[in-house]
Amino acid sequence: MTSRRKLRFDEIGYWSEIKLDILKEYARAYSTIFSSKHQARFHHLYVDAFAGAGVHLSKATREFVPGSPLNALRVEPPFKEYYFIDLDGRKVEFLKRTVGDRSDVHIYHGDCNDLLLREVFPNVRYEDYRRGLCVLDPYGLHLNWEVIRTAGQLRTIDLFLTFPVMDINRNALWRHPEKLGEVSLQRMNAFWGDDSWRQVAYKPDPTLFGDVDVRTEPAAVPEAFQNRLRQVAGFPHVPKPLPMRNSAGAIVYYLFFASQNPAGLGVAEYLLRKYQHHGARP
Fold this sequence. Notes:
This protein is of the alpha/beta class. It has helices at 2-6, 14-34, 68-73, 89-99, 112-120, 145-154, 165-171, 182-192, 197-201, 220-231, 262-275, and strands spanning 11-12, 43-48, 55-58, 64-66, 81-86, 105-109, 130-136, 157-163, 202-207, 210-215, 242-245, 251-258.
């Protein structure tokens, strides 16, 4: 009980619980496919790069809700291995105690932008008959494009990615972009991979004093990111993302899916359609 008092659990709303349901259902379907006798040569992994403590606190019920790591560990048939990463040492220690001593579970404390490239992705190589389901659920602009691009180039990853549009709007997509600070620009460039997001987010508006950059339609940015996942990262199958809303109905983030596999696309599209009309809750 002492660790519970010291550790502050992430509080999640209705749509985050929906996201966990989607991840859980897809993980079950994914592991079922790769556990079949027809796929016996494959070694399939589950990766959560922002694993947290493994449990969250529901804003609606004030009860504890299993997070992505614990849901994945309960999937039957099981994955062959699990890789969990978080930057918060207290959450990592809590997750380690919850999981216990298991040789198939690897838990890392540190920056996923480094650990994924150095420690995890080398274990999901195409030529080794490895395949992986990877969850990238950053709290904001805390993810580098190199991670996403590498996942695509591996040709072995099915990816669920949170596109943090609220944090992007707050930190980068200002009405007056000339007032953006250097730190905000660097964070957005790192997430996007370069500064081409500016051509998507703004368009020149001629005035008496010359052109002034003004915001484009809000949907333009996630649409461009969807194309970027296909054309730059190299994921051939990227359906339209699911907007995730807060209790006021405002879009907080988009849930993207990206895959090399048309079968995975079919499962993901079914789940995204299934949950798209669930609406906001308090």
